[in-house]
């Protein structure tokens, strides 16, 4: 393998930086928006849309689970167990999707995460362009 295979141009690095930062907390997302507004790139826009979708889907799912938990709390013994299992499954699933998105950003790929990635790209198609 030659060294040229591992050379990353500054443009690609900047593109990856905005994409990667978008996944690192809400502050990173805001910084990525600022970086992207200075120089718009397809990879940056793609991952900003993915993370915006994660945030919105997370808020909606969290609200739904909170309401469900309030209802399940009235079921003796099994209710708290179901609440814990529901939260655990959603947190682990969310973490896996987040990691998949972050890895795609690190690799410089525009790969939507399973389940929600493709719809997010459609819903926010004109965002961050």
By DSSP, the count of extended strands is 0
Structural domain count = 1
Provide the β-strand percentage band.
Answer: under 5%
Specify Rg, calculated over alpha carbons.
18 Å
SSE topology string = HHHHH
Distance between the termini: 36 Å
Poorly predicted ranges? 1-8
Q: Can you tell me the overall shape?
A: elongated
- What's the tally of helices? 5
| Alpha-beta content class | mainly alpha
Helix content: over 70%
Biggest beta sheet summary:
none
Looking at the chains present, what oligomeric state does this protein adopt?
single chain
Mean pLDDT over all positions: 88
Keywords:
0% strand; 129 residues; mainly alpha
SSE blueprint:
Layout lengths: L9 H12 L3 H14 L3 H31 L5 H30 L9 H7 L6
Helix pairs in contact: 1-2, 1-3, 1-4, 2-3, 3-4
